[in-house]
């Protein structure tokens, strides 16, 4: 039986890694994927393991194994070195005593195989199929976003939600921001399910919650690391309490899909426009108070957006740019603490 293994840090797991594992499957009956995580790394080991498991959830021949080690005992480097390869080969021999194949895309793969007395099958050593590495991704996430599998994208996507009562410009601003940042957008599901804010039932709110979460999940694995979302589950919860005095029973998965990195709340100081399907202005303003109470109830912090349409756009752009800058600095700071993998 041909039992192979693949090993790596997967920080993050990318399509080159995925292709290598699929290549290994084409040469082996079973493939063990060893996720190597040192005691000094800050990217959670369980997250990396989940990325691989989720990508191969339909492949029973793949077994993902988490291996956590201390850098005082095992070297943390990707350099091709006979001494380093010997140390790791000894550890691999303990972990995989019955495996007879190792698949890598690095020169040290041959050394590891020799020390273990097994076969090395190289994969895309020149990185011509997928010209990417975890190091390049950490250095420039937006430019390498397309090289990430869906599950990894869903973990790393930055979500910005626009909140507010009716007729505060959420939908228009969502589209304008998506065009400005050349990113994905999720439009409000409620407007497609309920035609008139004066005529809906509690069942409609559950439909809205489910559909809106589906749209977010779908767009979270798109072509951009930034996603602008028009309204979210907390507004749906607010409608439930405001209109029916009911606390909706929302599935945890829906709440997780709606979880965002930045909440922008549009003040109701904008000109009110009644299109025939909206609440009257006085009731609209009462709904605004309900929304704010719900956000406070669930501990959701937000930045308030005021002024005319252009002022709202400018404020939102500034806040999103600041958010993206912070996230990039944090990502680069994290990357800077890592050795190349």
Outline the fold blueprint.
Blueprint: E1 3-8, H1 15-27, E2 30-38, H2 45-55, E3 62-69, H3 82-95, E4 101-104, H4 108-116, E5 119-122, H5 134-139, H6 141-144, H7 150-156, E6 158-163, H8 170-181, E7 184-186, H9 190-193, H10 202-219, E8 226-230, H11 233-244, H12 252-258, E9 262-266, H13 281-297, E10 303-305, H14 309-336
Parallel strand pairs: 1-2, 1-4, 2-3, 4-5, 6-8, 6-9, 7-8, 9-10
Helix pairs in contact: 3-4, 8-14, 10-11, 10-12, 11-13
Would you write up a description of this structure?
With 341 residues, the chain is of the alpha/beta class. The chain folds into 2 domains: 3-144, 3-Layer(aba) Sandwich (Rossmann fold); 157-334, Rossmann fold (3-Layer(aba) Sandwich), CATH 3.40.50. The protein contains 14 helices and 10 strands. The protein has helices at residues 15-27, 45-55, 82-95, 108-116, 134-139, 141-144, 150-156, 170-181, 190-193, 202-219, 233-244, 252-258, 281-297, 309-336; strands spanning 3-8, 30-38, 62-69, 101-104, 119-122, 158-163, 184-186, 226-230, 262-266, 303-305. The strands form 2 sheets. The protein has a 5-stranded parallel beta sheet, sandwiched between helices. Strands 7-8-6-9-10 form a 5-stranded parallel beta sheet, with helices on both faces. The radius of gyration is 25 Å and the shape is elongated. The two termini are 30 Å apart. The model is unreliable at 336-341 (pLDDT under 50).
Order of helices and strands: EHEHEHEHEHHHEHEHHEHHEHEH
Strand percent estimate? 15-25%
CATH superfamily of the largest domain: P-loop containing nucleotide triphosphate hydrolases
Count of strand segments:
10
| Biggest β-sheet description | 5 strands, parallel
**Rg, please?**
25 Å
- Output mean pLDDT: 91
- Name the overall outline: elongated
| Approximate helicity band | 40-55%
CATH topology descriptor of the largest domain:
Rossmann fold
**First-residue to last-residue Cα separation:** 30 Å
Domain NadR/Ttd14 AAA: 159-312
GO molecular function: catalytic activity
InterPro entries: Cyt_trans-like (IPR004821), NAD_biosynth-regulator (IPR052735), NadR/Ttd14_AAA_dom (IPR038727), P-loop_NTPase (IPR027417), Rossmann-like_a/b/a_fold (IPR014729)
Organism: Chitinophaga filiformis
């Amino acid at each position: 039986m041909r039992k192979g293994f693949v090993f790596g840090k997967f920080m993050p797991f990318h399509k080159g890694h995925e292709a290598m594992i699929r290549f290994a499957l084409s040469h082996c009956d079973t493939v063990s994927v060893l996720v190597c995580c040192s005691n000094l790394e800050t990217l959670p080991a369980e997250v990396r393991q989940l990325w691989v498991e989720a990508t191969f959830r339909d492949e029973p021949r793949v077994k993902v194994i988490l291996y956590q080690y201390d850098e005082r005992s095992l070297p943390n480097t990707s350099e091709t070195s006979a001494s380093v390869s010997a140390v790791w080969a000894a550890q691999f021999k303990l972990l995989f005593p019955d495996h007879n194949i190792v698949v890598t895309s690095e020169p040290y793969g041959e050394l590891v195989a020799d020390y273990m007395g097994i076969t090395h099958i190289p994969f895309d050593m020149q990185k011509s199929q997928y010209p990417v590495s975890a190091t390049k991704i950490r250095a420039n996430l937006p430019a390498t976003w397309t090289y990430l599998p869906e599950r990894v994208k869903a973990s790393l996507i930055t979500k910005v939600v626009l909140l507010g009562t009716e007729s505060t410009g959420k939908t228009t601003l969502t589209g304008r921001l998506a065009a400005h940042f050349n990113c994905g957008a999720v439009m409000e599901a409620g407007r497609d399910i309920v035609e008139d804010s004066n005529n809906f039932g509690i069942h409609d709110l559950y439909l809205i919650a489910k559909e809106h979460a589906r749209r977010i999940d779908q767009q979270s694995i798109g072509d951009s690391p930034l996603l602008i979302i028009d309204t979210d589950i907390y507004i749906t919860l607010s409608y439930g309490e405001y209109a029916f005095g009911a606390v909706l029973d929302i599935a945890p998965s829906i709440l997780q899909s709606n979880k965002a990195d930045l909440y922008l709340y549009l003040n109701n100081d904008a000109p009110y426009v009644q299109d025939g399907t909206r609440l009257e202005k006085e009731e609209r303003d009462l709904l605004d108070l309900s929304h704010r109470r719900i956000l406070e109830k669930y501990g959701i912090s937000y930045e308030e957006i005021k002024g005319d349409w252009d002022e709202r756009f400018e404020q939102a752009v500034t806040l999103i740019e600041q958010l993206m800058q912070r996230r990039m600095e944090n990502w680069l700071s994290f990357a800077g603490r890592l050795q190349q993998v």
